[in-house]
Amino acid sequence: MALVSTTTVASSSSYHCDHPLRPAAARSWCRPRSRGGGRLAVLARARGQLTTTPKEEAAPAASAAGERGRYSYEVDSLIDRLSNLAPRGSIARCLETAKHRLTLQDFAAVYREFSRRGDWQRSVRLFKYMQRQPWCRPDEHIHAIVIGVLGRQGPALLDKCLEVFQDLPADARTALSYTSLIAAYARNALHDDARALLDQMKAQGVAPTAATYNTVLAACARAADPPVPFDMLLGLFAEMRHDPSPAVRPDLTTYNTLLAAAAVRSLSDQSEMLLRTMLEAGIMPDTASYRYIVDAFANAGDLSRVAELFREMADTGHTPDPSAYLGLMEAHTRIGATAEAVAVLRQMQADGCAPTAATYRVLLDQYGKQGRFDGVRELFREMRTAVPPDTATYNVLFNVFGDGGFFKEVVELFHDMLRTGIEPDMETCEGVLAACGQGGLHEDAREVLDYITKEGMVPTAKAYTGLIEALGHAAMYEEAYVAFNMMTEIGSLPTIETYNSLANVFAKGGLFREAESVFSRMTNSAGIQKSKDSYDALIEAYCQGSQLDDAVKAYMEMRKSRFNPDERSLEGVLNAYCIAGVIDESKEQFEEIRSNMTVPSIIAYCMMLSLYARNDRWADAYDLLEEMKANRASNTHQVIASMIKGEYDDSSNWQMVEYVLDSSNLEGCDYSLRFFNSLLDALWWFGQKARAARVLDHAVSYGLFPELSRDTKLVWSLDVHRMSVGGALVAVSVWLNKLYARLKREKDLPQLASVVVLRGEMEKSTITRGLPISKVVYSFLNDTLSASFHYPKWNKGRVICLKSQLKKLQAAIDSTNGAAVPGFVHMTDSRLPYPGSKVYTREPQVENGSAHSTAESLVEEEKESELLAL
Questions:
Q1: 212, 314, 428, 695 - which has most CB atoms within 10 Å?
Q2: pLDDT at site 305
Q3: Three-state DSSP class for 710?
């Protein structure tokens, strides 16, 4: 006979233990592993012919079958007939053809299936039918099962449980039926009734079993209003220990129930007593036991005692298993006690208990949270000599290094994982793609996605989000949009994160119309409402696209939608005010940032510095620089302020600047792009051209602005559409000097030189000439090279210089007769102006860019207009 409902205290998730690693042959990056019809399923999904994989199709069927695969044909048939029976249908007819072939064990199987479904109504109808039939009259086992079915439905059916119990003759009642009824009351938190039934059971001369006591203990331990005193639980425990019957001796379930109750009550002394008692009784703790012991001492604030207990156990030949040490390490890491967690690992090794991969994972994750990446690398090297890393370990490493900004290291670890024959899962690939997205590693992201499809897996929305983000950081707008459409074709529906990522791709380049289209599709087609990140993307798109009123409107709409702005949101509005040149509103926004954040970021400070410089507010600018230098809470602010003032130009101090720039790169491309744009803008308007050029070199070396320079036989191109105005002028200046050097030494000139100032739909609009970056870059080019550049008719987002003009420039250079000229632009650091100086009265403006176009260039433009279709 099987006991019904002998559960103890509600169990929580146990610590995970490692399974033995299966040897796997090393395989290359691209060689696919056979997975049956997996790859065909992916292809079929892309054609819209399949919506689930074979495994996904089989899972619901297996779930619906439940345990019925083990039943006999008669049992399966009866279950089907009863399931399809109308509410007033005849059960007798269902059983008419098979009543002589069914046993009570078969009926027990039917009740178990109904119990699994929670179908108590059919259970009661069948039970009442069986009561009236002599050939299938229910025995105690059937009564116990039906009581269990009814007891799971809540307190309302406890009276029916009692009726079923009383239907059983008194002389036929054993511990089985009593335990089932006690469990029904216990499950509904009626511990007093459960205890009374135990006393009644003893009074009737029915000997309880360990399962009976465990059920009562579990009910009393779970009682919360009011809680049962722990001494009462120990009283039941004492009854079990002193009962002469071996069937009543406490078992592992008994001890775990008491240990769980002691943990909830923070009773560390009682937990230690129970541990010693169970060891004396020859019962070894399991994973749950150790977890409850650790929880009891953690709640009591005495975790150090647990390590002593484990050492005593090892000394007496009862070495705890790895899950015990793992639970103790996790308890230490939850309170940030990393040194103590490492000490547990060393004690574990000293006690002769081999660490598992899960043991190392806890410490790797903890080191990562504390930013101790060298410690992560060292511990991982140690782990590889002790236990083979598994997929879950690599997943932890990907999260740790991805969050820490070591994006290329994540890709290297993924290659290492494949070389060692460890099979990545989808979580692995998602983690790698997320790192590639943050770091702008679009080539690596594509390789990972190719690996996923070749392995027969279907890329998830999270995987595609990483790819889209990576492509966006390389300004590969068309490729990002193709990837977005591809994911919908294979059945991976975009999430809010995917839409926000695609919008951010366009926002960085000021493609505000494309960003608007993304969110229109998200809300109208997908039915997904904007989040705070959605509004942040719109604000950035409008700012970079010089639609400043729209940026402020998007911010106000975000506030009306009851989203709390964070630092990025507030900086986005500050950027709009600073670009517009409105000082009072900018100062007010800066003060709001100061009130919401502990310290405004470097980005916010640089925006204000640039604004003050462009408006000749030098006294305000110097006050802000001194405020940055006086900031003792942030060494970054001090270094940047000193660098702008020219105090860190020597090699030793410049290393501090490089360290700050390196640290910004660890934040990911999204932050780095905004950081370098604001810093370059401030340096340019402060007249620090040489320092700005050095900073730009660092940004390019980090992989930012990969679209910046592109040279072919037909075109020499510079792309500044993702840069701030000051940053664009720095890049144009550096590019013009490179152009000077090339014109001086090269004879084969391209058909044209081009500076891209805008991308996307705005390339077709003539209003682009009036946007800040277009006006400033155009004016600077022609002021420097005297009407050599003009806007072409076929693209309003570019300023070009045709081959004929390049030849004139080359001739002019040759006519200097070798004079020592560094280039077209003198890249030197100007002396900082005195307060009150008038350097910039307003930003350069050009009423009509075409005024600089010569008749000759317009004629040649018609012939060569298709050369820049790239």
A1: 212
A2: 92
A3: strand
**Mean pLDDT in residue range 313-336:** 91
* pLDDT one-digit tens code per residue, 592-629: 999 998 899 999 999 999 999 999 999 999 999 999 99
CATH of domain 707-830: 3.30.1370.110
- The DSSP H or E segment spanning 833 is none
Distance CA 131, CA 119 (A): 19
The string of DSSP letters for 420-473 reads: TTPPP-HHHHHHHHHHHHHHT-HHHHHHHHHHHHHTTPPPPHHHHHHHHHHHHH
CA distance 748 to 750: 7
The span from the first CA to the last CA of the chain, in angstroms, equals 80
Closest C-alpha among 527, 536, 599 to residue 568:
536
Q: Two tokens at 640?
A: 């940047």
SS3 800: strand
Of 206, 207, 183, give the one whose Cα is nearest residue 194.
183
715-719 sheet: strands from edge to edge = 709-711, 715-719, 752-756, 798-802
State both tokens at 336.
């940030």
What is d(CA 199, CA 183) in angstroms, rounded to the nearest whole number?
A: 14
For the cut 70, the answer to whether the pLDDT of residue 799 exceeds it is: yes
What tokens appear for 708 in the block? 């910046």
Helices (H) and strands (E) in the chain, counts: 42, 4
Q: Where are the domains of the chain?
A: 494-597, 603-703, 707-830
Q: Pairing between strand 752-756 and 715-719?
A: parallel
pLDDT in tens, 244-262: 888 889 999 999 999 999 9
pLDDT at 5 over 60: no
> In sequence order, which ranges of 564-650 are alpha helices (DSSP H)?
567-580, 583-596, 602-614, 618-629, 635-644
- Whether residue 844 is preceded by a cis peptide bond, meaning omega within 30 degrees of 0, is no
Taking only Cα atoms into account, the Rg of the chain, rounded to an integer number of angstroms, comes to: 37
For residues 798 and 796, what is the distance between their CA atoms, to the nearest angstrom?
A: 6
CA atoms of 711 and 730, how far apart (whole Å): 19
* CA neighbor of 233 nearest in space, from 269, 270, 268, 266: 270
Query: Residue 865 carries which DSSP code?
Result: G
Q: Which residues pair with 716 in a beta bridge?
A: 711, 753
- Phi, psi (degrees; rounded to nearest 5) at 715: -140, 135
Of all helices (H) and strands (E), which one includes residue 709? Answer: strand 709-711
Calpha distance 755→703 (Å, rounded): 20
What dihedral angle (degrees, nearest 10) is formed by the CA atoms of 672, 678, 684, 686?
-130
Residue 574 and residue 248: Cα distance in Å, rounded? 74
Residues 494-597, CATH architecture: Alpha Horseshoe (1.25)
Model pTM above 0.85 = no
Residue 274: closest CA among 265, 264, 260? 260
**CA–CA separation, 17 and 564 (whole Å):** 42
CA distances, 562 to each of 416, 557, 559, 633 (Å):
46, 9, 5, 32
User: 811: how many CB neighbours lie within 10 A of its CB?
Assistant: 10
- Place 845 in a pLDDT band, splitting at 50, 70 and 90: very low
